[in-house]
């Protein structure tokens, strides 16, 4: 069976070259006589894999020396609790910007630990935009400011990095990390589930500034303390070794393409191609304000929703998979992460035009 174009929001497509390398190394990694899945996480073979992956990620993102990089379990959802547990310190509250489903989940979890100030929300307009800097009502004494730069479900993306004064900025970058260069020094912490732009589900990356580590709430379990994982090089317990290995292969793949500057150009062109197809038609529509549109997750609706099932069925027949929108918003959603080739977006646009010509 030939490979399909997988538009899933996550777990998402991985680069074919990465999968092929993993396949070739499945039974015997680098002459070790073992699969990476069978290696001790404390053995010299895996330790070399882990160190190289971290070094490549630091190079790709230009991570400053005063930031620690952690390879964790639990998904980004575990970070929703770990962040207030570790970052509140002596303070009683934190600021959160609400721009969609994942922001709301982070807010709900944070409320278990602290007073949450909603610095801005776009819920009143069905999360079709992002708030401007001027619209942010930031607290004078917030422990930190949390936001979601890209909302996977709604396809909403911040076109700027919020200014937060002395409060560290915390970002859930699960669906946008590695899609373009960013200035890591603007953030106190960046975290991301791997299953969109990094690797398979089960791995989470956390990039944390040194001064934010080591002041967890007294009740915080050892496994939920960032200091625990820093002190043990992400190996306090057995880490997700195979996910870490695959992430390392993805980092190599990105470096081979020319790094994040090159990836940004590819991603912007893919997104523009799809948005132009939507905007150039009365048959399709995108609900997000243009300045807040995501490069990674492109939702769109059909003028006649009664045709949704037929659209999806026809798409699957030509190898365009997982285009159904999230159950909370309906319609369609094309997630076009780093591993989605331009050819996949071109084929989707071609299919959309063919479907419109038959049903418009």
TrEMBL record:
It catalyses: O-phospho-L-serine + 2-oxoglutarate = 3-phosphooxypyruvate + L-glutamate; 4-(phosphooxy)-L-threonine + 2-oxoglutarate = (R)-3-hydroxy-2-oxo-4-phosphooxybutanoate + L-glutamate. The keyword Repeat does not apply. Its main location: cytoplasm. Binds 1 pyridoxal phosphate per subunit. It holds the Pfam family Aminotran_5. Catalyzes the reversible conversion of 3-phosphohydroxypyruvate to phosphoserine and of 3-hydroxy-2-oxo-4-phosphonooxybutanoate to phosphohydroxythreonine. Homodimer. This is Phosphoserine aminotransferase. It comes from Solemya velum gill symbiont. The lineage of its organism: Bacteria, Pseudomonadati, Pseudomonadota, Gammaproteobacteria, sulfur-oxidizing symbionts. The gene is serC.
């Amino acid at each position: 069976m030939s490979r399909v174009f997988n538009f899933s929001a996550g777990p998402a497509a991985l680069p074919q070259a990465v999968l092929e390398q993993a396949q070739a190394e499945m039974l015997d990694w680098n002459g070790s006589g073992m699969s990476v899945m069978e290696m001790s996480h404390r053995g010299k073979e895996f330790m070399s894999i882990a160190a190289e992956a971290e070094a490549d990620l630091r190079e790709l993102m230009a991570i400053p020396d005063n930031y620690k990089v952690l390879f964790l379990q639990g998904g980004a959802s575990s970070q929703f609790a770990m962040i207030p547990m570790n970052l509140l310190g002596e303070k009683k509250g934190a600021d959160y910007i609400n721009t969609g489903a994942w922001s709301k989940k982070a807010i709900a979890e944070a409320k278990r630990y602290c007073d949450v100030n909603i610095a801005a929300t776009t819920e009143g307009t069905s999360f079709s935009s992002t708030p401007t800097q001027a619209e942010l009502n930031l607290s004078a004494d917030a422990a930190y400011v949390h936001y979601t730069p890209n909302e996977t479900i709604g396809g909403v993306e911040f076109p700027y990095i919020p200014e937060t004064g002395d409060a560290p900025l915390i970002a859930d970058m699960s669906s946008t990390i590695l899609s373009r260069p960013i200035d890591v020094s603007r953030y106190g912490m960046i975290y991301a589930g791997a299953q969109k732009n990094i690797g398979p589900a089960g791995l989470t990356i956390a990039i944390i500034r040194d001064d934010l580590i080591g002041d967890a709430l007294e009740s915080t379990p050892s496994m939920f303390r960032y200091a625990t994982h820093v002190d043990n090089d992400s190996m306090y317990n057995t880490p997700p070794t195979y996910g870490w290995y695959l992430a390392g292969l993805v980092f190599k793949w990105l470096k081979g393409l020319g790094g994040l500057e090159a990836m940004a150009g590819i991603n912007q062109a893919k997104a523009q191609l799809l948005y132009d197809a939507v905007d150039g038609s009365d048959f399709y529509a995108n609900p997000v304000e243009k300045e807040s549109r995501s490069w990674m997750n492109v939702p769109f609706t059909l003028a006649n929703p009664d045709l949704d099932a037929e659209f999806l069925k026809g798409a699957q027949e030509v190898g365009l998979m997982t285009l159904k929108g999230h159950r909370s918003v309906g319609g369609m959603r094309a997630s076009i992460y780093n591993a989605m080739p331009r050819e996949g977006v071109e084929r989707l646009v071609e299919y959309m035009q063919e479907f419109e010509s038959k049903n418009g």
